[in-house]
Amino acid sequence: MAREFHTVGVVGLGTMGSGIAEVFARTGLTVIGVEADAAGVTRARAHLDRSTTRAVARGKLGAAEQAALLGRISCGTSLAALADCDLVVEAVPEDLPLKAEILGALDRICPPATVLASNTSALSVTEIAAHTSRPGKVVGTHFFNPAPVLKLVEVVRTVMTEPDVVTDVVAFLEKLGKAPVVIGDRAGFIANALLFGYLNHAVRMVESRYATREDLDAAMRLGCGYPMGPLALLDLIGLDTAHQILDTMYHQSRDRLHAPAPLLKQMITAGLLGRKSGRGFYTYA
Ligand code: CAA
């Protein structure tokens, strides 16, 4: 019989984790969110308020529904709160030792039947799964930013993932209104493997003063029909996250396409991380 996921947990409530928690709570699920510290909890609450207020303004959510949705998400700092979850998604930063540590801790806290999912964008789900005693119940669930808006979720199966876990996670995501695709475990999966070479190339064009950021973005929006230009998209993703994804893909493939443009690192060092820090290629209020 197909397993059902009623109580779900999200570890790491940054841009992606908060968005994933919102997706779950929108369909009436109880969500237990865990952050590293009290400041993280405050940031997550602010992110959830902003995002759901935007959904209300866009006519996607009623004001009463917004309050109910937010009420279904609890945010704390203890992983022990996840002990009764049917599914836990980790969305902590793209750092393999950190993700492995979190998965190991979840493995000890959650019952053996709990499915553990990683929202990694480029790291090896197989390596993450190997830090648990239940690699058959570990999958990748890679959401796209903004998670409440974009339908795609890449469901990553490793050589160890039990086939019925993949089927049940796919069915669950479809019930949430998402459009899952299933792939094997290779850095970048489908979308990032195709997208990040393009984004990196755009940074190199700015770096060499080949075109202005505004003209670059306008060209791709107005000439190719993309919803946003590559530099605005990098600001949305976060330059630090983008750098980590490129770096991981580059180390796996050695394809120069993914060798991070030096300008990216310089901007990160200067604290220009994109929307989340108020400034990246553009400045945000
Ligand atoms: N909740 C629900 N719906 C929302 C919403 C919210 N908070 N915010 C916007 N929407 C809906 C709008 O109602 C609208 O829907 P309809 O077309 O049905 O009316 C749609 O989303 C677009 O909204 P807007 O036209 O108002 O545009 P926007 O400026 O608010 O947002 C955007 C635009 C969704 C961000 C769009 O520009 C976009 O899709 N950009 C590309 C994003 C992208 O490529 N993301 C992938 C990044 S890569 C990644 O995430 C992987 C990784 O590992 C890093």
TrEMBL record:
Domain 3-hydroxyacyl-CoA dehydrogenase NAD binding per the UniProt entry, residue ranges: 7-185
Endpoints of the signal sequence: none
Domain 3-hydroxyacyl-CoA dehydrogenase C-terminal: from-to ranges: 188-284
Sequence similarity: Belongs to the 3-hydroxyacyl-CoA dehydrogenase family.
Designated name of the protein: 3-hydroxybutyryl-CoA dehydrogenase
Organism (species): Goodfellowiella coeruleoviolacea
Residues of the full protein shown: 1 to 285 of 593
